[in-house]
Amino acid sequence: MAHTPEGDRFIMDKNENTVSITYSAEEQRELDAIRSKYKNGDKAQPTRLEQIKKLDARVESRAMVAGLSAGILSTLVMGGGMSMTLSLGRPVLGILVGVAGLLGMIAAWPLYQKVLKKEREKAAPEIMRLSED
């Protein structure tokens, strides 16, 4: 019998030259998930939990893309307004463009929330269907 840092997990029968390995329940689930990916070279059907996680990630990523895009674009607009004010000597136009960019940055968070709510409403029926027994 061999010992591991986690305790007795390997059992060796000297007469038959075999090794038996035992895993905890959590390790066995993880092992089964990995094995299912390689089984018969076919793509394994995703579990309900995996499908739900994928839908949830898609919902959140779409909202994140919308909010970040608006925020980044607005930051660039505000920077353009600062450049107009400082480099081109057009302070009135630069301030107006900068304020427009600032308002866009402020609107990025409500846009994120709105897209998130809309995407959750679209995904809710599918997630509820998958989560039922």
Summarize the structure.
The protein is mainly alpha-helical and about 130 residues long. It has three helices and three strands; from the N terminus they run βββααα. The protein folds into two domains: about 1-40, no CATH class; about 50-130.
Task: Name the average pLDDT.
Answer: 84
SSE string, helix = H, strand = E?
A: EEEHHH
Output the structural class: mainly alpha
Shape: elongated
* The number of domains: 2
Cα radius of gyration in angstroms: 28 Å
Widest beta sheet: strand line-up = 1-2-3
Poorly predicted sequence stretches spanning 5 or more consecutive residues: 1-5
Tell me about the biggest sheet?
Answer: 3 strands, antiparallel
Give the number of helices. 3
N-to-C span:
43 Å
Give the proportion of residues in helices: over 70%
The tally of strands reads: 3
Strand-helix topology:
Elements: E1 2-4, E2 7-13, E3 18-21, H1 25-38, H2 48-86, H3 91-131
Antiparallel strand pairs: 1-2, 2-3
